Every structure is written in C-alpha cells, then in structure tokens.
Amino acid sequence: MNTKTVPPAAPRVHPARLTAALDEPLNRWLWLVKWLLVVPHYVILLFLWVAFVATSVVAFFAILFTGRYPRPLFDFNTGVLRWSWRVAYYAYGALGTDRYPPFTLADVPDYPAHWDLEYPGTLSRGLVLVKWWLLAIPHYVVLGFLVGGAGEVWLSCGLIGLLVLFAGVALAVTGRYPRSLFDLVLGLDRWVLRVAAYAALLTDVYPPFRLDQGGEEPGTVS
What we know:
Layout (H helix, E strand, L loop, with lengths): L15 E5 L13 H4 L1 H28 L4 H20 L22 E5 L13 H5 L1 H11 L11 H16 L4 H21 L23
Antiparallel strand pairs: 1-2
C-alpha cells in the first residue's frame, strides 16, 4: 500500500502584515544614543496616540451601529501603528536600521520596515463589545511579558527590550547583528502589532498564538 506524507499546511497570512529587512552594515555605537535621536518622534507620537484613542472610540460606535470601520479613521489609526513600528524598528524595538524614520503616516517603500493592514469590508457588531477587553486578555498577559511595564514596543522594557540590548552589545563587540536574534525579535514585534490591531478594533481576525519569526510574513493568502 502506497502512503504519501502530506506536508503540513502553511499558516494563513494574517491581515496585519509586518515586514522588515536587516539594514546592514549597522553602526556599532549609534544605538547608544538613539533614545535621544528619536525624541522628536516620541513627542509627535504622544499626540498621535491621544488622537488614536479618540478615533478608536468613534470607530467603536460606528462599528456597533453600522458594522463598518470608517475608512478615514482606519487609515489614520493604521498609519499611527505604522509610524510607531518604524520608530521601534530604528530604536529599541529592534535596532534593525540606522536610517532615521520618516515623519509620515504613509508607507515609505524604500524604508526597510513596513506595516500594513487589510481594510475589512465589514466587522462584527457583537465582537466589538468584547474583543478589546475580554477576548484579548490572554494576549495581554503575553504582551506584559514581551514589552514589560512600558506597554509600547518602541519603549519595551520586557523580553523584547532585553533581546534588543543583547543585539546592541553584540553589535558593539562584533559589528554584526546576530541573524537568529533578529529573526526572534521580529517575531515578537509581529505578535505585538497583531494584538494591537485586534485590540484597536481594526480587524476581527484573532491573533494566533504563534511565533512567526523573521522579516517576512509566513504562510499563504488562502
């Protein structure tokens, strides 16, 4: 009897897509002062995140009554997450590039870090009531471990921050960012941003409890 080994199905692509390329060569010592260099971004992001919360409240009621996330609000909130990710990638969410992050909500094709989210046609009116506080609780526990008390990937003092510190030390000593460490950090960052998109009501797709490592999104579209 002939038997065939069926390979496991590739994981489905999540609608929140985080990609990045390790932008080598990296300066051995620049990472020590990036906390200062990104201060202008932190100031702007503070105001953007205040607006993010306000627009999320408006979106909550829009979804509750219409089942749709207003497209202008969706684009703005997606842009805030995208901007935050680029700053994180430059600074202490990854240290993956020395190219200064652009000041824009839009995607920048030639920048080495990208984040995008597929616009949902409709969203569940019922889920909007529970997914951001109840259904996401297991992920919040995980994120507490990954990002620590800071609660933001670009100010991480949890596991991500510790791993990025190791990467900085390795960069200072050897001039190279260990590739396996980079892949792990990107997988953790991807987890954080998927949960952020779900908790912000931007998608109904529940974040998988899966560590997808590396700079490219795994899986298939179907």
